[in-house]
C-alpha cells in the first residue's frame, strides 16, 4: 500500500504518524509551504485524509482531491468534516467512538470536582507557602449536586453513570427523550440549566447545537451554577460565558474546549472558580494508541476492500 | 435588675463544656458556631492561667470536652477532670485522643460518624483524576498562556480499568470504592481484618496490596500500628506506574521516602491532602508536576461544616439530657492510640 497517498491534516499523534508513514505515502499537510500548489501536484495520488478535532476535510479540500476515497478522523467529533459533501461524492468517513468515551467522561467528573472543590487553587495555595498563614477557604460539596447533561449519547451516559456513584440526581436534554433511561428529561436547555447545579455539554457539534449554551442558558444556570464543557468550543457562546464569569453571574466553569483553540480568553486566567484544560478529553497514552489503531484499522480495511470498523458515512 | 439576676442564675445552671483550643470552625465562623441554649462553653484558651491551673480551678464543673485535631486530649488532661463524662471531637480522626484512658475512666467519646465520608471520598477521586490526567498541571499551563505558544501538553494516563488498592476499608474507604467502581476500576483492600460481606479482593498486608494495584489510596486511621505503614518497601512494590493518594494522616506515610521516590521517578505520582508536619510541606514537591497537594482540606466544604455543627450540638445536647449519643465511638476493640497530636 506504499503508493497510496494519505494526507494528514495536522500533527496529532507521533505513533499514528509513524505508522502511516510506514504503510502509505504520507503527506504532512502542516509542513507544506504552499498548500494550493501542493494539492495541484498531488491531487491524483491522495486517496485518504486523516483529520482530528482541529482540522479535517472541508468542502474546499474535498473538491481539491478528486481521488479521495476515505476520511478517517482521529476523534469522535465530526464537525471538521463536510459530511454532506462526502455523502454526495461517495467518500467514506470513519471516526473513533467508544475507545475514548471513558476518558472523556472521567475528565468531565474530574473538572466538576476540580471546580467545586477548588483543587487546582488548593494546590496553588500549598505551593505558594500560604498554608503556613492559615487554612484555605471552604469549598462546595460535590456529592448530591444535581447534574444536567446536554446530549445523552455514549459520553453523556458515561458521565451520568459516574455522577450517580456520587449520589448526584441526573437530568438531561437531548434531541429526543430517551425513555429507556430513568433520568429526568427537560425539553429545553434553559429548563435543564434552571434545574441543575452543574450543566455539562456532551452532545455533538452541528449547526443546530452551535451556541447551545447561550446567554439565556447561562442566566438560567445562575450564580451558583457551574458549566462544564467537554464537547466543542462552539457549543458555548464564549464571550457571553467570559463576561458571566468575570461578573460572577455564574458560579464557575471547567472547560476543556474553546471557540478558537489554542487561544483561550485571558480574562479567565485569574479566576479561581475556573479550570482550563488544553483539549485533553481523550488525552491519555492508552486511549490515543487505541484511537490511532482504529484509524489505521479503518484505512487498512478500506484499502483491502473489507468492512470498515467504525464507519459514519 | 431582677431579670438580670434571673438570667445569670439560669446561665450558671447550664452545664459546662470545656474547649482547650479554638477549632477550625471558630476561625471560620466565629466562636458561637456550636452554641446551644442547653449548655455553655468554658474556653481554656481565653484564660491567662496555665492549663493545669485552669483545669484544677474548674475541675468540678466540667462534664464534657469539645476537642479538635489541634488540641490533643491526653491522659494527663483527662486525669485533671474527675467529672468528665464525654469527649466530642470535630474531626474524623481520633488519634489525638487517648481512647484507652477514656475507656478506663468510662468516658464516652462522640466522633464525626460518617458526615465527612462523602467529601473525603470526593477528594480522593478528585486528586486521583488530577494526578493521572494532569488537571492542575495543565490548568497552570493554559493559564500561563503556554498552550498557544508551546503547543499540546503531554498525555496523561487512563483511570478506567486501573486497579485501586484501598488501605483501610472503613466508611471513607467504602465510599471511595463505590465511586471508583463507576469509573471501571477494580477494587482491592487491606484492613485490620477481612470484611466478610464485601465483594472486593482482600490482601493480608499492604506490600501485597501495593504490588497488585495501580493506585494506592490511604484511608485508614493513624495508630501506633499504622505509623509509617507506607514504607520504602510498600512504595517500591507500588512501582513506577503506581500512584498514591493520602487523605488520612501524614504520618501514615514515610514522607522522606515518598519524597525521594517522587523526585527519582520511582512512582508515577501522588495526591496528598495531609503531611507529617503540617503546615510544612517538603519543598522538593513544589517542583513536581505529578504531585497534587491540598492543605488538609478534604472535609472543608460549607455543607460538611453545617452537618458538623448539627452533630456536635446534637451529641452534647443528647449527653446532657441523658439520651443516647448520635455518633458514639465504640471503645471496646481499639487499636492503640497514644493520644499523640497528629
UniProtKB/TrEMBL annotation, chain A:
Domain of life of the organism encoding this protein: Eukaryota
Domain called D-isomer specific 2-hydroxyacid dehydrogenase NAD-binding: residue spans: 109-281
UniProt-listed Pfam families: 2-Hacid_dh, 2-Hacid_dh_C
Domain D-isomer specific 2-hydroxyacid dehydrogenase catalytic: 12-312
Coiled coil segments of this chain: none
Keywords linked to the UniProt accession: NAD, Oxidoreductase
This protein's record includes keyword Zinc: no
Family: Belongs to the D-isomer specific 2-hydroxyacid dehydrogenase family.
The protein's name in its UniProt record: Hydroxyphenylpyruvate reductase
Organism, as annotated: Hibiscus sabdariffa (roselle)
UniProtKB/TrEMBL annotation, chain B:
D-isomer specific 2-hydroxyacid dehydrogenase NAD-binding domain span: 125-298
Keywords: Oxidoreductase
Gene3D superfamilies named among the record's database cross-references: NAD(P)-binding Rossmann-like Domain
Domain D-isomer specific 2-hydroxyacid dehydrogenase catalytic: 55-329
Pfam families per UniProt: 2-Hacid_dh, 2-Hacid_dh_C
Protein family according to the UniProt entry: Belongs to the D-isomer specific 2-hydroxyacid dehydrogenase family.
Protein's name in the database: Glyoxylate/hydroxypyruvate reductase HPR3-like
Amino acid at each position: 500500500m506504499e503508493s497510496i497517498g494519505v494526507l494528514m491534516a495536522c500533527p496529532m499523534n507521533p505513533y499514528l504518524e509513524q505508522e502511516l508513514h510506514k504503510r502509505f505515502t504520507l503527506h504532512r499537510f502542516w509542513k507544506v509551504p504552499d498548500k494550493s500548489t501542493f494539492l495541484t501536484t498531488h491531487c491524483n495520488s491522495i486517496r485518504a485524509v486523516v483529520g482530528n478535532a482541529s482540522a479535517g476535510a472541508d468542502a474546499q479540500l474535498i473538491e481539491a482531491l478528486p481521488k479521495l476515497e476515505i476520511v478517517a478522523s482521529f476523534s469522535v467529533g465530526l464537525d471538521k468534516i463536510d459530511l454532506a459533501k462526502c455523502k454526495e461524492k461517495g467518500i467514506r468517513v470513519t471516526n473513533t467512538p467508544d475507545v475514548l468515551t471513558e476518558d472523556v467522561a472521567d475528565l468531565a467528573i474530574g473538572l466538576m470536582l476540580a471546580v467545586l472543590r477548588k483543587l487546582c487553587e488548593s494546590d496553588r495555595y500549598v505551593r505558594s507557602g500560604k498554608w503556613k498563614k492559615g487554612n484555605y477557604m471552604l469549598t462546595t460539596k460535590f456529592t448530591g449536586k444535581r447534574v444536567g447533561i446536554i446530549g445523552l449519547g455514549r459520553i453523556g451516559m458515561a458521565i451520568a453513570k459516574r455522577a450517580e456513584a456520587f449520589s448526584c440526581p441526573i437530568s438531561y436534554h437531548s434531541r429526543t427523550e430517551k425513555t429507556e433511561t430513568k433520568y429526568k428529561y427537560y425539553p429545553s436547555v434553559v429548563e435543564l440549566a434552571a434545574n441543575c447545579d452543574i450543566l455539562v455539554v456532551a452532545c455533538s457539534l452541528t449547526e443546530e447545537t452551535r451556541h447551545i449554551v447561550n446567554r439565556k442558558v447561562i442566566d438560567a444556570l445562575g450564580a451558583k451554577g457551574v458549566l462544564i464543557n467537554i464537547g466543542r468550543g462552539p457549543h458555548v457562546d464564549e464571550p457571553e460565558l467570559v463576561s458571566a464569569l468575570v461578573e460572577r453571574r455564574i458560579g464557575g466553569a471547567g472547560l476543556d474546549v474553546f471557540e478558537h483553540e489554542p487561544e483561550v480568553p485571558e480574562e479567565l486566567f485569574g479566576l479561581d472558580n475556573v479550570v482550563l484544560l488544553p483539549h485533553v478529553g481523550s488525552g491519555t497514552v492508552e486511549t490515543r494508541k487505541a484511537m490511532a489503531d482504529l484509524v489505521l484499522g479503518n484505512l487498512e480495511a478500506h484499502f483491502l476492500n473489507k468492512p470498515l470498523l467504525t464507519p459514519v458515512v | 435588675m431582677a431579670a438580670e439576676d434571673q438570667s445569670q442564675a439560669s446561665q450558671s445552671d447550664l452545664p459546662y463544656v470545656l474547649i482547650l483550643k479554638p477549632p477550625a470552625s471558630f476561625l471560620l465562623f466565629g466562636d458561637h458556631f456550636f452554641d446551644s441554649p442547653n449548655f455553655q462553653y468554658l474556653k481554656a484558651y481565653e484564660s491567662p492561667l496555665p492549663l493545669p491551673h485552669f483545669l484544677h480551678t474548674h475541675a468540678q464543673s466540667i462534664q464534657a470536652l469539645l476537642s479538635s485535631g489541634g488540641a490533643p486530649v491526653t491522659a494527663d488532661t483527662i486525669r485533671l477532670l474527675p467529672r468528665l463524662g464525654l469527649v466530642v471531637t470535630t474531626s474524623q480522626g481520633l488519634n489525638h485522643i487517648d481512647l484507652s484512658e477514656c475507656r478506663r475512666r468510662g468516658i464516652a467519646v462522640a466522633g464525626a460518624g460518617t458526615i465527612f465520608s462523602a467529601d473525603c471520598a470526593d477528594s480522593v477521586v478528585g486528586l486521583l483524576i488530577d494526578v493521572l490526567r494532569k488537571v492542575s498541571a495543565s490548568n497552570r499551563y493554559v493559564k500561563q498562556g503556554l498552550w498557544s505558544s508551546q503547543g499540546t501538553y503531554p498525555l496523561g494516563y487512563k483511570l478506567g480499568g486501573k486497579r485501586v488498592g484501598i488501605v483501610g476499608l472503613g466508611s471513607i474507604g467504602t465510599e471511595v470504592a463505590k465511586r471508583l467502581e463507576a469509573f471501571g476500576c477494580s477494587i482491592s483492600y487491606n484492613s485490620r481484618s477481612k470484611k466478610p460481606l464485601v465483594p472486593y479482593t482482600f490482601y493480608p498486608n499492604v506490600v501485597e496490596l501495593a504490588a497488585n494495584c495501580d493506585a494506592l489510596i490511604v484511608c485508614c486511621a493513624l495508630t501506633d500500628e499504622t505509623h509509617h505503614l507506607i514504607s520504602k518497601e510498600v512504595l517500591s512494590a507500588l512501582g513506577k506506574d503506581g500512584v498514591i493518594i493520602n487523605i488520612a494522616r501524614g504520618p501514615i506515610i514515610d514522607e522522606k521516602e515518598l519524597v525521594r521516590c517522587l523526585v527519582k521517578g520511582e512512582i508515577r505520582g501522588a495526591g496528598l491532602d495531609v503531611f507529617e508536619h503540617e503546615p510544612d510541606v517538603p519543598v522538593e514537591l513544589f517542583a513536581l508536576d505529578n504531585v497534587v497537594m491540598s492543605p488538609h482540606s478534604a472535609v472543608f466544604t460549607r455543607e460538611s461544616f453545617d452537618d458538623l455543627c448539627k452533630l456536635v450540638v446534637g451529641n452534647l445536647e443528647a449527653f446532657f439530657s441523658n439520651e443516647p449519643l448520635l455518633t458514639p465511638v465504640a471503645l471496646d476493640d481499639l487499636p492503640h492510640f497514644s493520644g499523640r497530636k497528629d
